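Write out this protein's structure.
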Amino acid sequence: MEEELYYGKIAIKLKDIMEQKQISIYKLSKMTHLKYEIIKKYYTNEISRYDDNTLIKLCYFLNCNISDLIVYKK
């Protein structure tokens, strides 16, 4: 049996950006028209599938680049 390799993971830095900008999950949910639960999953890094439309909205409303929001960790 082949050994499974660990390639790293993708982490969302939404919490850091929101804290810097002093924006709550509730406020970002209202700004983006995304469900509170969705924002919370991104905020707590509990998301398993990344939606491009959601990421685009987050970047737009937080005035950041995708590279500010997502990081690859080995």
